[in-house]
Write a structure and sequence with these properties.
The protein is α/β, with parallel strands linked by helices. The protein folds into two domains: 196 residues, NAD(P)-binding Rossmann-like Domain (Rossmann fold), CATH 3.40.50; 99 residues, UDP-galactose 4-epimerase, domain 1 (Alpha-Beta Complex). 44% of the residues lie in helices and 15% in strands. It has twelve helices and 14 strands. The strands form four sheets. The protein has a six-stranded parallel beta sheet with strand order 3-2-1-4-5-7, with helices on both faces. The protein has a three-stranded parallel beta sheet with strand order 6-8-12. It has a three-stranded mixed beta sheet with strand order 9-11-13. Helix 7 packs parallel to helix 9 and helix 9 packs across helix 12. The protein is globular, with a radius of gyration of 19 Å. It starts with 9 loop residues before the first strand and ends with a helix.
């Protein structure tokens, strides 16, 4: 492994997405606005994202569009957030493979040739499948997903480790659980019920959930997601035994427990349940994860539990609703 190089110029792919949009702003606060270059494929960035630093439209499956930005800004670190998520991936599996795997290969090859300091590539709890232990899912266990999104993320973890051991490229990754945020609307994931429920609670005090009431999944509030990502980026590589496949836990709850948490702060809130095709996907994923490796190797520790998250989500969404922004 080559010696650790300092992160100076960061490029974020998928910067207009749910996580990417907030992560980019956090990275700009940390490294300086001009030192974090945001990119997206076709969705227009928010005014805040566009006006706070450099932004370009690129296609990660086309090397030349990535290469142009890398050279122009002398990029030394790539945070590769561009991906097709689980629900959309099942509707368009070939697109999911092309973006999630071929796009990643483009990024890794570019980083290798430019001898970059680091590539961070998020993975997901979607790498697990029905054969995986669902309660306190181990970090190192059976990976046999039944979705194209999951298959592509397993491939991504393996590619990340391959480039680490073969070429000495510092590739890191963490398996995101469901991510909940008040900044970006749901974007095509199976865990999006846990975001949509808050929006609909504020809009009309009721929600129809697309998974069963007893469906339990690992979740994380966006501030903890951002914290985990940056903490992993900044830790000393010599402390890492794992690289592209860290479980990160925060909280696990059922859809019914989430609805009950909202009802504690919004009396009269009602939730009904009409499972669709996403139920089968949710049933193949963990109910909770063991993140001992992340806690021991880079000091991971979440700040939010369910009720603290609910209070913060509702407070922010009510403010936006009153201003006509949702």
């Amino acid at each position: 492994m080559t010696s650790k190089r300092e992160i100076k110029k960061v490029l974020v792919t998928g910067a207009v997405g749910q996580i990417g949009s907030e992560l980019t702003l956090a990275l700009r606060r940390r490294f300086g606005a001009d030192n974090v270059v945001a990119t997206g494929r076709k969705t227009a960035p928010s005014d805040e994202l566009k006006n706070s630093g450099p932004f370009y439209f690129i296609d990660v499956s086309k090397r030349e569009t990535l290469e142009e930005v890398v050279r122009k800004h002398d990029i030394d670190t790539i945070v590769h957030m561009a991906a097709i998520l689980s629900a959309v991936g099942e509707q368009k599996p070939m697109l999911a493979w092309d973006v999630n795997v071929n796009g990643l290969l483009t990024v890794l090859e570019c980083a290798r040739e430019h001898e970059m300091a680091q590539v961070l590539v998020p993975s997901s709890i979607a790498v697990f499948g029905p054969e995986t232990p669902r309660d306190n899912t181990p970090n190192d266990t059976i990976l046999k997903p039944k979705t194209m999104y999951g298959v592509s993320k397993v491939a991504g973890e393996l590619l990340g480790d391959y480039y680490f051991y073969k070429y000495g490229l510092d590739v890191r990754g963490l398996r995101y659980p469901g991510i909940i945020s008040h900044e970006t609307a749901p974007g095509g994931g199976t865990t999006d019920f846990a975001v949509a429920i808050y929006y609909e609670a504020v809009r009309q005090n009721r929600y129809t959930c697309f998974v069963r009431e007893d469906t339990r999944l690992p979740m994380m509030y966006m501030p903890d997601c951002i914290k985990a990502t940056i903490d992993l980026m900044m830790c000393d590589v010599s402390k890492l035994k794992h690289h592209s496949d860290f479980n990160v836990g925060s909280m696990s709850f059922s859809a019914g427990e989430l609805a009950a948490s909202i009802a504690r702060y919004m009396p009269g809130f009602e939730c009904s349940y009409e499972p669709d095709f996403r139920q089968q996907i949710a049933d193949s994923w963990p109910m909770s994860v063991d993140d001992t490796a992340a806690r021991e190797e880079w000091g991971w520790s979440p700040d939010y539990d369910l009720d603290r998250m609910t209070q913060d989500m509702l407070e922010n969404l009510k403010r936006k609703h009153a201003a006509g922004r949702i």
